[in-house]
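Journal club prep — side note

Before the paper discussion, L.F. wants everyone to see what a predicted structure for a comparable chain looks like in token form. Sequence:
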Amino acid sequence: MGTYILKRIMTIIPIFLIATLLTFGMIHLSPVDPAEAYLAAIHIQPTEELLAQKRHEFGLDKPLLVQYVSSVIQISQFNFGVSYVTNKPVWEEISSRIPATIQLTVGGLIIAILVSIPLGFLAGIKKNSGIDHFSRFLSFFGASIPSFLFGYLLIFFFSVKLDLFPVEGIGTWKYLVLPAITLALPLIALYTRLLRASVLENLEEPYVLFARTRGIHEKKIMGKHVLRIAISPMVTGLGMNLGKLMTGAIIVEAVFSWPGFGRYFIEAIFNRDVPVIQCYVLLAAGLFLISNLIVDLIQMYIDPRISRKGRQFQ
């Protein structure tokens, strides 16, 4: 187990370096001049003298290799430079917004898990029943409707018409309900469909037949064996979407004026704030890598066969 974790951590390092290289390359291949973007953000007319001065301050007049090595060293120290707009350290700006994004992400994830696990499981063991038809309708609806449209519908009915929840901002738990539901709906559609298909597949496996012939109670077979194994694809999907949730809640944060770093990223794009964009992209890559590592470890605990297969190929 320890060796497996160490190997996975060691594979994260080169992947993250590749992400830094790609980000560095995209910024330098972009037609936007960072020095010109900086002067435009602070409303100063760019001149050749000012542009040369800012390029020197940003180290853009150095060889590309020197710039890349310097960038990696700074990133390893959580130094992503200074925002062109606020003139404050980027990491300080983003870290102040991370708690709001985490709050929204955790809320959406909890709702998605609480709804999709029982709904997908019951739809699988009660095929073609009313709950199965409802789960398929919810899956199609959640997968097809855009998040911004669903968010505006929730605002219209539950904030404007019924006046049950606030329209925008952050505060008590009431502020979290509508954006968390909006964020959770696509996940509910995905996880319900995955779990239903996995339950149906596992019900055809020989171990279910053997357990029934041994006289094991049906509830124990379904809960202890079928659900535990069938949930594995859902956990994999969770790993693929956890980083996406953290960094991809941009639309939800924009609709509900949620003060997270996804909304901050949109503002950075409009302002051509290159240091913020670079930090966001690298943070997204790091979150995807770490979340997939955590999910792999959870899967090894749920299904020990994964650990045994890993040792066979060593």
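L.F.'s comment for the group: The chain has two domains: 2-95, 98-259. Keep this in mind when we get to the figures.
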